[in-house]
C-alpha cells in the first residue's frame, strides 16, 4: 500500500529508534530501551538492520567495567529519515 | 510478523518519540534554584557586612567559599546525573555545559581580580552578563519563565546605572530570585506535571 515509503524505516520500532537518534548526538542502548519500552533482543535486531543499511553507527565500549553500546545516526540515516518524512507528508496531503 | 502502519500513525509515532526523548533528558530547576539562592545569600550578606563594617574582613572569603561550594556541588551533581541516567549527548547540552563553565569561571575571575577596574559599572555588568546567560538557557530549553526572568534581569542591569552603587548588590540578589529561583521552581513544577 505504501510502496514509496522506505521499508527499512517503515517499521514501528526502527522508526522509533531513528526518531530518538534524530533528537540526540548519540544514545546509549539502555536509553533507547527505556524510551521505546521494547525488549533488548528486539532492539538489537532492529539496530543491526539499521546498521546494515548504513543508517546508524554502533560503538561498543566499556563503562564501569560493563559493556556499553552507543548508537548514533549517520548522514545517510538523516537523509533517509528526511526523505521518509517528506514522503509521509505527500501521502497525508497529496495536493501539496 | 510484518507490521503495517499508516502514514498518519508513522508521523504520530515520530512526534511522540521525539517528544518523549526530549522530556526524558529535560533539565530540572535544581541547579538554577541553587545558584539563585547562592546569589541572593552572597549579595544580601555583602550588603549587611558593609552596613556593619565587616566588609573587608569576611566578604571575600565568604563569597568565594559559597560560590566554590556551588561550583563543586554542580560538578558532582552533573557527573552523578550523567552516570546514573544514561543521559544521551545532545549538541545543545554540550554547548550549554561548556558555556556554563566558561561563563562561571570568567565571572569569578572578573569578580576577584578585575572587579575594581570596572568601578561602579561592575554591578550593572554582572546583571547584564547573568541575564544574557539566563536568556540563552531559557531559549535553548524553550521555557518561557526563564527567558522572561532573564529579560527582567537584563532591564535591571540597565536600571542599575541610575541607582546608587551601594544598592547594586541588592539588585543582584533580587535578580537571583527573579531570574533563577522563581523560574527554577516553575521548571521543577512543569517537569513534575509532565511526569504525572
Stretches with pLDDT under 50, minimum 5 residues of chain B:
none
Shape annotation of chain B: elongated
Secondary structure tally, helices of chain A: 4
Unreliable runs of chain A: none
What does the oligomeric state look like here?
Answer: heterodimer
In whole angstroms, how far apart are the ends of chain A?
20 Å
Distance between the ends of chain B: 34 Å
Mean pLDDT of chain B: 84
Strand content of chain A: 15-25%
Q: How is the topology of this model organized?
A:
The complex is a heterodimer of chains A (96) and B (196).
Chain A: H1 12-23, E1 27-28, H2 29-36, H3 40-52, E2 56-63, E3 66-73, H4 75-92
Antiparallel strand pairs in A: 1-3, 2-3
Chain B: H1 7-24, H2 30-52, H3 55-85, H4 91-118, H5 122-140, H6 144-159, H7 168-195
Helix pairs in contact in B: 2-3, 2-7, 4-5, 5-6, 5-7, 6-7
Write a structural description.
With 96 residues, chain A is α+β, with helices and mostly antiparallel strands. Chain A is built from four helices and three strands. The two termini of chain A are 20 Å apart. In chain A, 33% of the residues are buried. The longest helix of chain B has 31 residues, at 55-85. Chain A binds chain B through residues 1-2, 5, 10-12, 15-16, 19-20, 22-28, 30-31, 34-36, 64, 84-85, 88-89, 91-92, and chain B through 3-8, 10-11, 13-14, 17-18, 20-22, 24-25, 83, 86-91, 94.
Feature tags:
heterodimer; A: 96 residues; alpha+beta; three-stranded antiparallel β-sheet; 4 helices; 3 strands; B: 196 residues; mainly alpha; 83% helix; elongated
Briefly, what is this?
Chain A is built from 4 helices and 3 strands; from the N terminus they run αβααββα. Chain A is α+β, with helices and mostly antiparallel strands. Chain A has a 3-stranded antiparallel β-sheet.
Amino acid at each position: 500500500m505504501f510502496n514509496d515509503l522506505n521499508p527499512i524505516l517503515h517499521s514501528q520500532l526502527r522508526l522509533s529508534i531513528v526518531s530518538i537518534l534524530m533528537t540526540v548526538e548519540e544514545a546509549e542502548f539502555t536509553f533507547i530501551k527505556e524510551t521505546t519500552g521494547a525488549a533488548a533482543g528486539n532492539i538489537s535486531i532492529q539496530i543491526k538492520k539499521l546498521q546494515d543499511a548504513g543508517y546508524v553507527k554502533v560503538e561498543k565500549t566499556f563503562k564501569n567495567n560493563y559493556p556499553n553500546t552507543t548508537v548514533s545516526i549517520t548522514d545517510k540515516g538523516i537523509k533517509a529519515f528526511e526523505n521518509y518524512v517528506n514522503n509521509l507528508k505527500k501521502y497525508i496531503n497529496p495536493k501539496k | 510478523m510484518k507490521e503495517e502502519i499508516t502514514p498518519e500513525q508513522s508521523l504520530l509515532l515520530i512526534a511522540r518519540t521525539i517528544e518523549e526523548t526530549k522530556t526524558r533528558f529535560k533539565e530540572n530547576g535544581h541547579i538554577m534554584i541553587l545558584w539563585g539562592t547562592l546569589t541572593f545569600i552572597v549579595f544580601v550578606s555583602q550588603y549587611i557586612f558593609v552596613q556593619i563594617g565587616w566588609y573587608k574582613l569576611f566578604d571575600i572569603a565568604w563569597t568565594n567559599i559559597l560560590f566554590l561550594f556551588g561550583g563543586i556541588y554542580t560538578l558532582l551533581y552533573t557527573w552523578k546525573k550523567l552516570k546514573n541516567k544514561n543521559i544521551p549527548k545532545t549538541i545543545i547540552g554540550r554547548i550549554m555545559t561548556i558555556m556554563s563553565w566558561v561563563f562561571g569561571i570568567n565571572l569569578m575571575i572578573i569578580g576577584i581580580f578585575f572587579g575594581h577596574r570596572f568601578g561602579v559599572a561592575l554591578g550593572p555588568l554582572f546583571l547584564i552578563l547573568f541575564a544574557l546567560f539566563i536568556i540563552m538557557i531559557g531559549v535553548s530549553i524553550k521555557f518561557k519563565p526563564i527567558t522572561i526572568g532573564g529579560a527582567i534581569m537584563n532591564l535591571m542591569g540597565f536600571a542599575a546605572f541610575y541607582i546608587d552603587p551601594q544598592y547594586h548588590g541588592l539588585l543582584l540578589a533580587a535578580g537571583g530570585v527573579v531570574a533563577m529561583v522563581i523560574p527554577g521552581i516553575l521548571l521543577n513544577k512543569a517537569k513534575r506535571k509532565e511526569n504525572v
